[in-house]
Amino acid sequence: MRRALACAQAAAQAGEAPVGAVLVDPATGEVLAEAANAPIARHDPTAHAEICAIRAAAGRLGNYRLTGLWLYVTLEPCAMCAGAISHARLGRVVFGADDPKGGGVRHGARVFDQPTCHWRPEVQGGLLAEDSAALLRSFFRARRG
Ligand SMILES: [Zn+2]
């Protein structure tokens, strides 16, 4: 999660909302991909940190399924990313801060709780949540100010 936070900081420096994600193979501890939120720079509304990390790991492994891998992400995933996480068949999602406004796991669509969701990862929230939330607060405060 510290690596994911570093990615989030890099996103903030690039003017993107500070969210970072890291994909890990829990069997070996190897980091397969890490990514920062980048929809503005990439001209791609789907370029959330989670999607970027999933794409990078899938390309690296040459497999559209990332069965059992663990995702660390600094903010509760949105509904789009939760869908991608399910399609990728990740084993576990560990996130930092809750996102009552845009989250799709514990809030909003609650994608993994729907009967139409056919792959449900284990979910753990709140890891280094205050660090993640502080990064987001200071980013948006600076933008408004
Ligand atoms: Zn997302």
Fold blueprint:
Layout: H1 2-13, E1 20-24, E2 31-36, H2 39-42, H3 49-61, E3 70-75, H4 79-88, E4 92-97, E5 122-124, H5 129-144
Parallel strand pairs: 3-4, 4-5
Antiparallel strand pairs: 1-2, 1-3
Helix pairs in contact: 1-5
The structure holds zinc ion.
Structure description:
With 145 residues, the protein is α/β, with parallel strands linked by helices. Helices cover 38% and strands 18% of the residues. The protein is built from five helices and five strands; from the N terminus they run αββααβαββα. It has helices at 2-13, 39-42, 49-61, 79-88, 129-144, and strands spanning 20-24, 31-36, 70-75, 92-97, 122-124. A five-stranded mixed beta sheet has the order 2-1-3-4-5. β3, α4 and β4 (92-97) form a beta-alpha-beta unit. The longest helix is centred in the last third of the chain and has 16 residues, at 129-144. The structure holds zinc ion. Zinc ion binds next to α4.
> Considering DSSP H and I runs of 4 or more, what fraction of the residues is helical?
25-40%
Helix and strand element order = HEEHHEHEEH
Biggest beta sheet attributes:
5 strands, mixed
Q: Strand pairing plus helix content: what structural class?
A: alpha/beta
Percent of residues in beta strands: 15-25%
